[in-house]
Design a protein that fits this description.
195 residues; 10% strand
């Protein structure tokens, strides 16, 4: 094995270790957020259910059916509000990511959304200013069999994430678009965890 191959192997191993570390740290953060959200969700759900029950008892003389319907609907509204709050908090948590964590996420998102062919990855000015050295090469190394990515030099007006431009086709990988696209799945996952 040549010296260059040993260096390459060492770099790849360090990269794998860094990715595993970041993944583990992210999982811990997510578990902590879920635990906190579960606690807050249970507290808020309990308060809501108790308030709704009091409301139902007052209206019981008029119509037990109506009171149960109000309770159920209100519970679902609060539950949905809790889920929306948790998802919004998770979105805002991304702003606290270090550059390394952020670009590891961007790398994973790119690999997941890349399509065959050549494309330009457009980013906002802030992300372009902090892009890690060798990031474009890292992406192309991961997708070289089917795709080629060039990072656009001109900033675009997006909040975060990126857009893949294939000429006639664009793939919106802004984090807001990714969250919106996966909203139902995120809510289902959180509902199973919390309720």
């Amino acid at each position: 094995m040549t010296g260059l191959e040993k260096i390459k192997e060492k770099i790849e191993e360090q990269s794998r270790e860094n990715c595993e570390k970041i993944f583990a740290e992210t999982n811990l953060k997510i578990k902590k957020m879920i635990a906190e959200a579960r606690e807050e969700g249970n507290r808020r759900a309990t308060e809501t259910v108790e308030a709704a029950q009091r409301e139902a008892d007052k209206r019981n003389a008029v119509s037990k059916s109506t009171a149960e319907s109000i309770t159920r609907n209100r519970y679902l509204e609060i539950r949905n509000a809790i889920l929306n709050d948790i998802i919004s908090a998770a979105y805002l948590e991304i702003e606290k990511f270090s550059d390394e964590e952020y670009f590891d996420m961007i790398f994973s998102l790119c690999k997941k959304n890349i399509q065959p062919g050549e494309c330009i990855m457009h980013m906002n000015g802030y992300d372009l200013s902090r892009i890690p050295d060798g990031f474009e090469e890292k992406i192309n190394s991961a997708v070289f069999e089917t795709s080629a990515v060039t990072i656009g030099e001109k900033a675009v007006d997006i909040e975060n994430g990126f857009i893949l431009d294939y000429g006639d086709i664009t793939v919106n990988c802004t984090l807001r678009a990714v969250f919106d696209e996966n909203m139902d799945e995120l809510k289902d996952m959180l509902s199973k965890e919390l309720f």
